[in-house]
Design a protein that fits this description.
Layout: E1 9-12, E2 15-22, E3 25-30, H1 36-47, E4 52-53, E5 56-57, H2 61-74, H3 80-97, H4 108-120, H5 125-145, H6 172-181, H7 185-197, H8 201-206, E6 212-213, E7 218-221, H9 226-232, E8 245-248, H10 251-260, H11 284-293, H12 301-314, H13 319-326, H14 330-337, H15 344-351
Antiparallel strand pairs: 1-2, 2-3, 4-5, 6-7, 7-8
Helix pairs in contact: 2-3, 4-5, 6-7, 7-10, 7-12, 13-14
Length: 354
Amino acid sequence: MKTKYPSNLYKRNDWWWMHIQRGGKRHQFPLQTKDLADAIQKRDSYLADPQIHYGFRKHSLGTQVDKYINEKTASKRWSRESATEKSRVLKVFCDAVGPDRSLHSVKTNEIESYLKSKISGGCKGGTVNGYLTILQAFFEDCVTNCSLLGNPVTPIRSFPDEHPVREVWCTAEEALKLYSSAQNNDLKFILGCGFFLGLRKKEITEARPEWFNLDGKVATIKMVREDLALKTGLDPFITKTRKERSIPISSLFLSFLENYLSKRDYCLAPRVRRGVYKYRYDFRRPFEDYVKSQGMIKVTPHVMRHTFATDFARRGVPISQLAGYLGDSVKTTLKHYAHHYPNSQDITGLYGIR
């Protein structure tokens, strides 16, 4: 006897499918589940959706996210790093709210709840505001290309972003001891770039010999844009702020670099090429093992950068100059380091920071 299935449902190799009639024709599409209760729930949701068209959602969220990412990547409007981060943010959001949903059914309150859950999970306001910007751009593209009636992200206000002052750093003596005690040249290079140049972790892994002008005693963090990378065969690299910057090299680090640098693509692990991971080369394990062996477990690549900035601030280096060395805005530099200046009250008052 033929098995009778619930209305609009049938099975193929234990998987549930749905069929509907549109325009006098029968159309089928998979529900991607083997569970009957789940299949019925999906069927009811699909049938209640006014955007269903010829057996498929006219614009499913997951399909549109993939299309948007592919188009932006193919047109090279995103750098490699930007494409990786934006793709991750969009796909995580898509999975959270449901990739099979109609694009038109995603509501403002759902998006806001999703972003608030990120705050509750420990994300900083600035990070979540970055997610907000990415989602805003995606849905704006959908308004243009998918006949979306309005951008559901527009009514959402940005989240407060408190910039904490940087309270973890090394003294000059601690930094010098760590640097001088390193027996491995690669470790010494990492420590020098962090303590004496204030480089970010990714900048240290991307450092190339041509960044260091030993005669001029200056390091210039240079970018390799996508078009130049295609011409030269070099890996592309874009700084966090999309700007190049120059930093003076101390005499101690300069004497080391004169023997360390050679003609190769990268300073660290020159044979390692970039893959899908954020860092071309990750020195975390040897770095953590070393600082632990020295009883300085608090030290991280970012703590080295804070140490560099704190030292310059305590010496009264002009705030705009320090911001230039760090590759940050004056406002951000003030929020993090103004309290280290000898005349911190004058500095904060001048810039309106309390």
